[in-house]
Each structure stands twice: as C-alpha cells, then as structure tokens.
Design goal:
The complex is a heterodimer. Chain A is an alpha+beta fold. Chain A is built from ten helices and 20 strands. Chain A has helices at 37-45, 73-76, 93-97, 110-119, 135-148, 165-181, 193-199, 217-221, 227-230, 331-336, and strands at residues 3-11, 14-22, 26-30, 52-57, 60-64, 69-70, 78-81, 153-157, 186-190, 202-207, 210-216, 236-246, 251-256, 259-264, 273-279, 283-286, 298-308, 313-320, 323-330, 344-349. In chain A, the strands form four sheets. In chain A, strands 7-8-9-3-10-11 form a six-stranded mixed beta sheet, sandwiched between helices. In chain A, strands 2-1-4-5-6 form a five-stranded antiparallel beta sheet, with helices on one face. A five-stranded antiparallel beta sheet of chain A has the order 16-20-17-18-19. In chain A, strand 10 and strand 11 form a beta hairpin. In chain A, helix 5 runs parallel beside helix 6 (165-181). Chain A is globular and about 65 Å long. Chain A starts with a strand and ends in a 19-residue tail after the last strand. Chain B is built from ten helices and no strands. In chain B, helix 2 (44-56) packs across helix 5 (91-116) and helix 6 runs antiparallel to helix 7. Chain B has helices at 5-38, 44-56, 59-70, 75-82, 91-116, 119-127, 132-161, 164-170, 180-189, 194-225. The longest helix of chain B has 34 residues, at 5-38. The chains are: A alpha+beta, B mainly alpha. Chains A and B meet through helix 2 and strand 7 of A and helix 6 and helix 7 of B.
Chain lengths: 368, 229
C-alpha cells in the first residue's frame, strides 16, 4: 500500500505544491515552521480540501479535484496522532483508545488492544482521565487510539513537539516499537532532525511549500546539498553499525563497513545492528594518517563530492566502505588540503554523546 | 404554614408549566445554539436577534404577539384550533409563553458551552471514523452538558417567574393559568390578600433555593463525570 500525493493549495498568500509518494515504513516530512507540513498532512487526512490535485492510497482515490472526489475524513481510515494529543477529556483512557473501534469493520479487536496496551505501557492508565496524564502518557494514549481505529495509513504531526527532552526519551522506544510492528505506511512530520534520523526510512524535505529533497533517509541526510536545508548544526549522515562487543572500561566496539570505532554508552547486545548518526560538524578530515590523537575513531575515506555553500563552509560527502559520511569543514581547509573528488583522506569522528535508553527493534541512534 | 387548595394549585401549575416549557424547548434550544455557535450562513445575525427578542421586548408585548399569533383567530392559532389544539387561556399557552421567554437564556448558556468545546476534538473524532451525528452525541453533547444544565436552570427559573407575557396571553384563570406570580398578583389586588401573598412569596423563595441547590449538585456530578473537577 502506498500513498500518492499531488496537490496544490493556496491560502494566506502561501502556495503549497507538493508531489510525493510514501510507501511502507516511516516517511518523515521535515521542514521549518510554515513550510507546509501540517497543511500536507491535513489534506491527506481530509481535514483540509486542497484547491487542486489528487491523493490516493493504494488503489483508492481519497481526493481528486478534477473528478470531484472527496472522501470524508471519517471514511478514509487514516489514523492521525496530533501534536496536542486531542484526547477526549470526558472519557477514560480505555474509552479513548476504543473510540474508533466501533467504526471499523470488525469492531473492537480485543487481542490487538491487549497487545497494544502492553506495547505502549498503558496497563496502569486505562481507568484514568486524560486530564491526569503527563504529556508523554497522553501521546502514548493518542498513539493507541489512532492505531486501534485500524488505519490504512498513520499520520503523526510532530507528536513529540510538545514534550520536553526527558519525556521524548521516554516515548521514543514506544514509537520505535510501533514502527517495527506497523504494517501500514507511517507519515512522521517533524522539524527535529534527531527524531527524523532516529525513525525515518524515507525523508521528504519541504521548503516554502515545495519538496526540496526526497529519497531514503540515508541518501538525503548525506547529501551535501541538504546541509543548508537541514541546518549546519543538525546535518549529518546516518549509517548502520554492528555491535562487536562491550569492553570493561564502558566502551563498546562497533563495526562499520569502513572500519571499526569505539563509543561509550551503547547498550544494544553484541551482534545487533544499530543506527548511528554522525553530525557533519563532528567529523574532522586529515590527509595524513593522524597520530597521537585522543580519538580512536579514524576511518579511511574517499571524497565523493564537495558542496560550497554561501558561507565559509564546505560540505564534503565521504565514502567509508559502503557507507557515506558527511563532513563540514571550512573552504580554506578544503583548498589547503587540495580536496577534490577521489581524494583519499582520514575522517576523525568525535565521539561525544549517546542518548540514554535501549531501543527496541534493533535501531539505536547515536550522536558521535 | 398551611396552604389553601388554590395556593397549592398555583404552585403545582407553575411547576407543571415550567417543566413542560423547559422540556419542549430544550431540543430546539440545543439545535439553535449549535447553529449559532458552529455554522455560518446568511441571516445569522438576524436569526440571533430574533432569538434574543423576548429578552429585550417588554413581556407584555411578547404576550400580545403570542395572542395575535396563537389566539383562536391568530394565524397559527386558527390552524391549531382546527386540529384541536387550543393554547390561548390554557395552561399549555402558559407553557408556550414561558418557553418563549426562557428560550434566549437557554440558547445563550448552551451556545457559550458549545463555543468552549474545542472543534479540534471533533476533528480528532472524525479521523477516528465518527460521522457527524456520532461526533455530536459522543463528543460535543457530553462536553456541553454543564452548559445545558445551566441553560435548563435558567430556563426553569425564568418560567417559574414569568408573569407579563403569561397574563397577557393566557390571562389569570385559577386552576388553569394562574401560576405562582399570577396568584401573588391576584392576592395583592384584593383587600386583605397580603397574608396569602406573603405565603406564596415564601414558597417561591423556597422553590428557587431548592432549584439552585439541586443544580449546583448536578453541576458537580457532571463536571466530575467529564473529568474537569
């Protein structure tokens, strides 16, 4: 089942023109405030009627302006997790999550409910009112509520934006578990790149109402052209790493396709593959093999492309084995080092922080 | 303090008239409140003004207009008369007068409550598969319950106290249209009637206090139920 969107919509002097596709897995829609993310998801849910275009899910046309098709939101079976939760204040948590069940073909699926309640850790919350829940608990209930309505597509509009960092860390494992069991496409809207890097399979970058970049998360995040769009501080490649083992001093050895590195604070079991996020500004380059460094994380790399931005910086796309890294260095350094496509050099990864908490589904994001 | 049969009749008539006035007008008041709170259409301000008219018109004028419309020879009254419904000078007419006078108060209270319900909650219900009717009965109505309760109390109080329109439309017939206020008025028209007037006044005060206490208790129950306590 895949979602196909091609819509135009104008309002308040703002024009949205988006053509995109989302298949199975998590497709993140990333963009700054006002780039049209919410308009896009509202159009998919049917809460907003675009001026022109077409939206289809699998074989079914949800909206087609030319043929005057507009399926009512209630009939779309598109689950929606709102940024502000929107739980029904007059119902218990149990009644909230069961709300949509009576509109599904099979009614309430008891087994699925039990499984979901366990998956999202809602056992002790079921009899409580939304007014007594914390922000993170509310969003977990909202996830369960959307999920139990048996959607064919799940929309999440910045579900973590209203939460502070500890709450985000608390809910993230649940999101990842849901992602791993979900059989339907998930659209995840965010303006937080760390979340995107952690969850997304595919990534669509919106800017001023248009699709600026799209592709797999690995490709887009390691695209030097994406650096100004994503923000210099936030841009960085993601790459898979296999845990080799944990050493007695608290460091863990990880195998990348281009070499071995060590990191602190990795809790995943040896043999599992986790997802690393390497920020572009945390990668240093050296032409000669570096010696006497405080970092053990040196990978031989080949320069693929260089992208000069408006400022003094240059984004460099590096090949490390089968993976791609992104480094951000100054244009002066690039000149002095005579960096050009094909140049061999060494990348030093500055390992700094690792988010706490083990993650289900074998994905572990790291900022190194 | 013992009441005469006529005084009992006035009290029970007032309660009956007020009960039916509120019961019959409530669904219309909810529909009208929803229309004014959630819909945009041409002539909305005109409709709103019309609804509020009984609030600002002298009650005697409202009563006279009711008599012109629902009297036996009135436009609607003649037609109702043919199918055997007579309102003028009957307790049913008193109920109609009370309903019309209380209607703006009920609509106002319910409208404010509907406006305070976040339409985003209804949107959320929509994405979960709930159609319009289900959204109204499962989301809007329960959340508006305190407002409806307030409207009912206001409407009931207004109906209990309604005098001008009632006496103009259905006169002051003991046992048929003589409500509590009409009975007090009648007592004051005859020499030596003060004692009866005072008894009925105390009775009216008692009913009012009782109504307020019951509504407060109900309001607490309702807000506990919808999780706002």
């Amino acid at each position: 089942m895949s979602l196909n969107v091609d819509i135009r919509h104008a309002f308040d002097g703002f024009k949205l023109h988006v053509t995109c596709t989302a298949g199975s897995g998590v497709t993140a829609i990333f963009g700054p405030s006002g780039s049209g993310k919410s308009t896009l998801v509202n159009a998919i849910a049917g809460l907003l009627t675009p001026d022109e275009g077409r939206i289809s899910l699998g074989e079914e046309v949800l909206f087609d302006q030319a043929q005057a098709v507009h399926i009512a939101p209630a009939k779309r079976r598109v689950g929606y997790v709102f940024q502000d939760g929107r739980l029904f204040p007059h119902m218990s948590v149990r009644d909230n999550i069961r709300f949509g069940a009576r509109y599904t073909s099979g009614g309430l699926d008891q087994a699925e409910e039990t499984r979901l309640v366990e998956l999202l850790g809602l056992e002790t919350l079921l009899t409580r009112r939304p007014g007594t829940l914390s922000g993170g608990e509310k969003q977990r209930v909202a996830l369960a509520r959307a999920w139990l309505s048996q959607p064919r597509l799940l929309l999440m509009d910045e579900p973590l934006a209203a939460l502070d960092e500890p709450r985000k860390d608390e809910i993230f494992p649940y999101l990842e578990r849901l992602r791993d069991v979900a059989q339907v496409p998930i659209i995840y809207v965010s303006h937080n790149l760390a979340e995107v890097a952690r969850l997304a399979d595919d990534l669509i970058v919106l800017q001023s109402g248009k699709v600026a970049l799209s592709g797999t998360a690995e490709t887009v995040l390691s695209d030097p052209k994406a650096l100004p769009l994503l923000g210099v501080r936030e841009a960085g490649a993601i790459l898979p790493a296999r845990v080799i083992g944990h050493d007695a001093d608290g460091l863990s050895r990880l195998a990348l396709s281009g070499g071995e590195i060590v990191l602190p604070g990795v809790s995943a079991a040896p043999g599992t593959t986790i997802r690393l996020r390497v920020l572009a500004q945390d990668v240093l380059l050296s032409r000669d093999p570096p010696r006497g460094l405080s970092s053990h994380n040196v990978l031989p790399v080949t320069v693929e492309t260089l992208h000069r931005g408006a400022g003094p910086g240059v984004a460099v796309r590096l090949r490390a084995g089968e993976d791609v890294l992104l480094a951000r260095i100054t244009a002066r350094a690039a000149e002095e080092m005579e960096l050009a496509p094909g140049a061999q050099c060494h990348a030093i990864l500055n390992a700094t922080a690792v988010p706490r908490g083990s993650i289900g589904g074998g994905a572990m994001p790291l900022k190194i | 303090m013992s009441l005469t049969a006529a005084e009992w009749a006035a009290l029970s008539l007032s309660l009956k008239v007020s009960f039916w006035a509120v019961l019959i007008s409530l669904p219309f008041a909810i529909a009208m409140a929803w229309l004014l709170a959630r819909r945009d259409f041409p002539g909305k301000s005109l409709l709103s003004a019309l609804v509020h008219l009984p609030l600002v018109l002298p009650p005697v004028v409202t009563g006279y207009l009711l008599l012109l419309t629902f009297g036996k020879t009135g436009a609607v009254g003649a037609w109702l008369n043919e199918i055997g419904i007579v309102l003028a000078f009957r307790w049913t007419g008193a109920a109609l007068a009370a309903a019309i006078m209380g209607f703006p108060l009920m609509v106002r209270a319910i409208r404010l409550a509907i406006e305070s319900v976040d339409p985003k909650l209804e949107e959320a219900a929509e994405t979960l598969g709930a159609g319009r009717a289900a959204r109204f009965t499962r989301i809007t109505l329960p959340l508006v319950a305190p407002g409806i309760l307030a409207g009912v109390v206001l409407g009931f109080a207004k109906a209990m106290g309604e005098f001008g329109a009632t006496i103009t439309f259905v006169a002051n017939i003991p046992g048929e249209t003589q409500t509590l206020p009409s009975a007090i008025y009648a007592f004051l028209q005859v020499p030596g009637g003060e004692e009866g007037a005072i008894r009925l006044t105390l009775l009216a005060v008692g009913v009012a206090i009782g109504a307020v206490l019951i509504s407060e208790w109900l309001a607490r129950r309702v807000s506990q139920r919808i999780g706002r306590a």
